[in-house]
Write a structure and sequence with these properties.
The complex is a heterodimer of chains A (320) and B (123). Chain A is elongated and about 110 Å long. Among the domains of chain A are: 2-50, Complement Module, domain 1, CATH 2.10.70; 144-306, Heat Shock Protein 90 (2-Layer Sandwich). Chain A has helices at residues 2-8, 52-79, 81-107, 113-141, 153-170, 190-207, 263-273, and strands at 12-19, 25-36, 42-50, 149-151, 173-178, 186-188, 216-225, 228-235, 277-282, 289-296. Chain A is of the alpha+beta class. In chain A, the strands form 3 sheets. Chain A has a 5-stranded mixed sheet. Chain A has a 3-stranded antiparallel sheet with strand order 1-2-3, covered by helices on one side. In chain A, strands 4-6 form a two-stranded antiparallel ribbon. The two termini of chain A are 32 Å apart. Chain A has 7 helices and 10 strands. In chain A, strand 9 (277-282) and strand 10 form a beta hairpin. Residues 257-261 and 300-320 of chain A have low confidence and may be disordered. Chain B has 123 residues and is α/β, with parallel strands linked by helices. Chain B has a single domain (6-119), classed as Rossmann fold (3-Layer(aba) Sandwich). Chain B is built from 5 helices and 5 strands. In chain B, strands 2-1-3-4-5 form a 5-stranded parallel sheet, with helices on both faces. The two termini of chain B are 14 Å apart. The chains are: A alpha+beta (320), B alpha/beta (123).
Chain lengths: 320, 123
């Protein structure tokens, strides 16, 4: 390798994974500076650094992040229990009622076969409806490896909203979706992005939960700006102190008595891994706050500095 | 033959509005189904309803709000609440407010019959 580099006569930098005779693995980082000595001979000054500990820490950090994301999903699962019970119990009620009717129709003299067929059909339809709810939940809450695909943000948001309808209704929240048409897809993990949308919507609901002097309005809108697809969740709740805008996304910072304060920090790390940005602001007009994330749309990855503050994509964009 | 007693069903869930009336008809009742509290109030049926099967959580006017509104308008209709939220505390509260029964979805045919016979003692 050094021989190969010598031919070029330039500075170089390498990272190696070495297996020592005792079988342990070392990660080493070599930085070399090329220079000519007094006689014009090529000479290298190099530093070899053992970066094993750093590599191991990075791997551990990735694992912890993914555990934390899972934990946050489980925490929101708890918050969603009532909503899930509602969404599943409705079709179950339909199933049991239809099956009871079906038995009665078949047991009558003469049997009402046509009526029974119709109730049996409805039983199947309601069974499928219950199973759809469970499937959506399974996708959202199972701990699985990350899959990168084209994600339609509108579709992803619609699925989350469908799961939350019962919860929002219970909280007397009036939801106004405003989805932009023809948005390009973004590259990413659909479930993780849905987790962020879920967090933002649950937070907005929570911010309005103590408020009784005005209707609780939530607006979820999507759009395209500067090569990024964005999603906004706007509420008219208690808002936050603008001084806290930066701290909102740090782990364990919470203003809620029931929250663990990890929802927004996990959302932040998810969006960062998608080369995107998430931020919050207090509404200019009216009470409440708006949370927004923006992700570069497909094929527009390179101009990463379209939005200020976006970091360079790294090798480990999606670990976990 | 006597005219069948009218049971009204108010529920925003379409599955329930389809399924429950058929079962109630099998029991021998006449049935009207409504998708919202407002639709029921403005229908002219409150005065003819012998028993109201009422969903608790609905957009717009909720079940308990309809219960209060009916009391204000002096409609004394026996109410059986049905709820998919499975909140036992809320159920006992609703019954203390005068509801005949409160059934958690999904409920059995037997539970429904028991509630109906409590609501309509004569039948």
């Amino acid at each position: 390798m050094i021989r190969h580099q010598r031919k070029k006569g330039q500075d170089f930098e390498h990272e190696h994974r070495l297996q020592l005779p005792d079988g342990t693995i070392k990660h080493v980082h070599l930085v070399a500076h090329a220079m000519k000595d007094g006689e014009g001979q090529l000479e290298y000054i190099a530093a070899l650094q053992d970066v094993t500990q750093r590599r191991l820490s990075e791997a551990a950090l990735g694992k912890v992040r993914s555990e934390l994301a899972h934990l946050a999903r489980v925490a929101s699962l708890g918050a969603l229990t009532a909503s899930i019970a509602h969404e599943v119990n409705q079709p179950l009620a339909g199933i049991i009622t239809n099956a009871s009717t079906c038995l009665r129709m078949l047991g009558a003299n003469p049997p009402n076969v046509e009526g029974a067929l119709e109730t049996a059909r409805r039983t199947i339809r309601d069974g499928n409806r219950a199973s759809d709810v469970i499937n959506r939940l399974r996708v959202l809450f199972s701990k699985k490896s990350i899959t990168i695909e084209d994600v339609d943000i509108n579709e992803a948001a619609r699925e989350v909203i469908a799961l939350l309808l019962g919860e929002l209704q219970r909280g007397a929240v009036i939801l106004h979706p405003e989805f932009a048409d023809g948005l390009p897809p973004v590259r990413g993990d659909r479930v993780q992005l849905q987790q962020v949308i879920l967090n933002l919507i649950l937070n907005a609901k929570e911010a309005m939960s103590k408020m009784n002097d005005r209707p609780r309005r939530m607006q979820v809108s999507t759009g395209l700006q500067d090569g990024h697809v964005y999603l906004d969740v706007r509420d008219n709740g208690v808002g936050f102190d603008p001084q806290d805008a930066a701290r909102l996304f740090s782990a364990f910072y919470t203003t809620k008595s029931s929250g663990m304060g990890i929802g927004l920090s996990v959302s932040h790390s998810i969006i960062e891994k998608h080369d995107g940005r998430i931020w919050a602001c207090v509404n200019d007009i009216g009470p409440g706050a708006t949370f927004r994330f923006a992700i570069p749309c497909k094929g527009l990855r390179d101009p990463v500095d379209v939005i200020e503050g976006i970091r360079e994509p790294t090798r480990e964009v999606f670990n976990g | 033959m006597d005219k069948p007693l009218l049971v009204s069903v108010v529920d925003d869930d379409e599955s329930v509005r389809e399924a429950l009336p058929d079962l109630l008809k099998e029991f021998g009742f006449a049935v009207q189904a409504f998708s919202s509290a407002q639709a029921f109030l403005s229908s002219g049926y409150p005065s003819q309803t012998h028993c109201l099967i009422l969903d608790v959580a609905m957009p717009g006017m909720s079940g308990p709000e309809l219960q209060k509104e009916l009391a204000l308008r002096h409609f004394n209709i026996p109410i059986i609440f049905i709820t998919a939220l499975g909140d036992a505390a809320q159920c006992s509260h609703l019954m203390s407010q005068g509801a005949v029964d409160c059934l958690m979805k999904p409920f059995s045919e037997a539970a429904l019959l028991k509630a109906l016979s409590a609501a309509l003692p004569v039948s």
